[in-house]
Design brief:
The chain is an alpha+beta fold. It has 16 helices and 23 strands.
Length: about 700
């Protein structure tokens, strides 16, 4: 046996024993760390702490095992085996040359080495240390399990903040605590609040713990505009529970309305917001050559958590023109990441869905939150994958067809950029007046193009109409190509389209009617950038105008990649004409077409009356005011008021102290913000000045 094999044979049992002993010592510590982590932060943290402790124990075990090397083996053999005559080092000296005497000694002790086992050198178990660590771990686990967590056990009462003077024989609040137990789906911990005002998740269970001095007999929680809430006595404390399904105002009444009136406390119930879905992929994606699958990505966020599974609605539109077939299906998808911010990125294989050339694949993610009961479901925005047809699409003038190509209005901004860059290269060789003239000329072209875009958005065109150039082909008026004579279309008598084209233009069926709001917004940004470019060009600053021109071109390209444009197909439905009454002069049965003016119905009558009564005008009331109609108005309009609870509190303050000037002013100010804003009145016409007066007299024949 070689020296290395002999060394491994004798050191392996000792190393294994040291590793097992160290891991056994780390086991109680790992259990204690896991118990503490579970108590403080839940199972996830408990598992993480246990893994960390075991990792540290494994590192220490390897370091302890590494100490059992060749020097340790030689020392151990010489100390435990007298028959080896302190010559154990000769057994592991293969590389060093030995003298005849050393070789003879090595042969003699080699036969004696096999008379014992390597397990005789293994260290013993650390029983005493294991017992100490086990006792310590049991103590830590017991402390973690028995230690009261926030929101468990009897609460610690805080001093009262009512601020009322103590009166002999009348109970007063001296200690208070509000325990908030959120719904389980929120994942929020139970917490204690020293204040009786709180903001809690909707559906939370509230538990009041109150103490009175002297001891009260029948204290209550008086809900403003609600039924009183009774308290039950537990020892020296009084307990009450309530579920916060909606926000409310209340006050603590320790003595059945004897003594001073306690102040109002407010609890706001925060409703669970629906989840939000944000696409991480472009809204329109063109398929790439050789692509066989698509992975749209979405991010779903929620204040308390999104469900781990969602549904992906996949809609296929295959075909062109009127021969388009639609199919729809939903598939389950699983998200990744934390519950409050999950990411959904399913892989969609084209053969599985039957997606082919000449179609669109539209996907929409449907997610739910963790609210219980009744989770909220939200549909995210749609993402489109377009697979163009291999044949060239043909434009058509028929309504009801799908426009797969955009008009040429989107193809001339590039030529303006080319002209600006050419002018900047020649600027050094041109005279200043010549540079200004050419820049103004390009600005005129930019103005005409901006007018075309404005007309496409539904506005009026500017300048003389011209055929738009095409950026894709780089054509312009003076590019040296032979474009042929202008093409004229003969007018046909009686055709509506020709009459409109010759004498006017319709606004009800403008090209803008085929654009969705998002595309219109992008096109509006392009028009704004064109205006900036036009301004700089006409003032002789082509270098400053170039960035605006590039921005306009970028927005135009975004519009070119927008979704399909669907034109209106259904025309107006007019009533049939009664031919028997034509040219007869009969007007029986004809109703007036004049529309009646309907007065605006205002619902602020009680609020306006109370506002006038609280003021200093002729309708003011100095004494007590009947606030019952105002309270009914607040309850009926609580959904649209900016802060219905604050308004109810101000009403209660005025009712309890009608002479309080600050309370009346506060209520009047809140009423002013709660009432509907009055409609704007038409401005009066300004009176005519001296010149205008002479002009009016002149046209009336009165002379000057």
């Amino acid at each position: 046996m070689s020296a290395d094999a002999l060394r491994t044979h004798w050191t392996t049992p000792a190393r294994h024993r040291r590793i097992a002993d160290t891991l056994a010592l780390g086991l109680p510590l790992a259990l204690a760390a896991a118990a503490i982590g579970w108590r403080l932060a839940g199972p996830a943290v408990a598992g993480l702490l246990a893994i960390v402790v075991f990792a540290v124990a494994l590192i220490v075990a390897r370091q302890r095992a590494a100490r059992h090397d060749l020097p340790w083996l030689i020392r151990s053999l010489d100390a435990t085996r007298p028959e080896l005559e302190d010559s154990s080092a000769l057994l592991f000296a293969d590389d060093a040359p030995l003298s005849p005497l050393q070789s003879l000694q090595r042969t003699r002790i080699a036969t004696r080495l096999d008379q014992a086992s390597p397990h005789d050198l293994t260290p013993g178990w650390s029983k005493r240390l294991f017992l100490i660590l086990s006792v310590l771990a049991v103590a830590l686990i017991a402390a973690a399990l028995l230690w009261p967590r926030a929101g468990e056990g009897p609460p610690t009462l805080a001093p009262s903040d009512e601020g009322l003077p103590a009166r002999p024989g009348i109970p007063s609040l001296v200690g208070q605590n509000l325990r908030i137990v959120p719904p389980a789906y929120t994942g929020l911990p139970v917490r204690d609040s020293a204040s009786l005002d709180a903001r809690v998740p909707q559906g939370s269970r509230l538990e009041w713990t109150l103490r009175f001095d002297p001891q009260a007999s029948a204290p209550r929680l008086l809900m403003l505009a609600g039924q009183p809430l009774a308290l039950r006595q537990e020892g020296a404390n009084w307990i009450a529970t309530h579920t916060a399904d909606a926000a409310f105002l209340y006050r603590v009444d320790p003595a059945s309305r004897r003594g001073a009136t306690p102040r109002l406390h407010r609890v706001d119930a925060i409703a669970d917001a629906p989840p939000q879905v944000k696409p991480l992929t472009d809204s329109l994606t063109m398929i790439k050559p050789g692509q066989r699958s698509w992975t749209p990505a979405f991010a779903a966020t929620d204040d308390y958590g999104v469900a781990a599974t969602a549904r992906l609605r996949v809609t296929l539109a295959i075909g062109e023109g009127e021969n388009v077939t639609f199919s729809e299906r939903e598939i389950p998808v699983t998200g990744t990441g934390p519950a409050r911010n999950r990411r959904f990125a399913p892989r969609l294989d084209f053969p599985t869905f039957g997606f082919a050339a000449g179609g669109d694949m539209v996907v929409q993610l449907i997610v739910r939150d963790n609210r219980a009961p009744g989770p909220q479901e939200v549909r995210g925005p749609s993402l489109i994958l377009r697979w163009p047809s291999p044949k060239q699409p043909e434009s058509s003038g028929l309504t009801g067809m799908v426009n797969t190509t955009l008009p040429a209005y989107f193809r001339s901004q590039r030529q303006i950029i080319i002209d600006i860059e050419k002018l900047l290269r020649q600027k050094r060789t041109l005279a200043p007046d010549r540079t200004l003239a050419r820049s103004a000329s390009i600005g005129g072209d930019q103005q005409i193009l901006r007018g075309r875009y404005s007309q496409f958005l539904g506005g009026e065109s500017e300048g003389q109409p011209e055929l738009p150039t095409a950026d894709a082909d780089g054509h312009s008026e003076n590019d040296g190509h032979d474009h042929g004579p202008p093409v004229s279309t003969p007018n046909v008598f009686g055709e509506k389209e020709d009459v409109l084209a010759e004498f006017g233009h319709p606004h009800d069926e403008s090209p803008a009617s085929s654009l969705d709001p998002e595309t219109r917004a992008i096109l509006k940004q392009a028009v704004d950038e064109m205006w900036q470019s036009e301004r700089e060009l006409k003032t002789g600053h082509p270098d400053t105008a170039l960035p605006y021109a590039y921005k306009a071109l970028r927005f135009i390209k975004e519009v070119q990649q927008a979704t399909r444009i669907f034109l209106s197909r259904v025309g107006p439905e007019l009533p049939p004409i009664d031919a028997s009454r034509r040219m007869t002069g009969k007007r029986e049965g004809l109703a007036s077409r004049q529309l009646d003016i309907t007065p605006v119905k205002r619902q602020d009558g009680p609020a306006a009356a109370a506002w006038r009564a609280l003021g200093a005008g002729p309708d003011a009331i100095r004494g007590p005011i009947d606030l019952a109609p105002l309270e009914g108005w607040v309850r009926a309009n609580a959904g649209r008021l900016p802060d219905a609870l604050a308004l109810s509190g101000a009403i209660d303050a005025v009712r309890r102290d009608p002479a309080c000037a600050s309370c009346r002013a506060k209520l009047r100010a809140q009423l002013w913000t709660a009432m509907e804003r009055p409609l704007g009145q038409p401005a009066r016409r300004r009176p005519a000045d001296a010149t205008g007066t002479r002009y009016l007299r002149a046209i009336e024949g009165g002379g000057s």
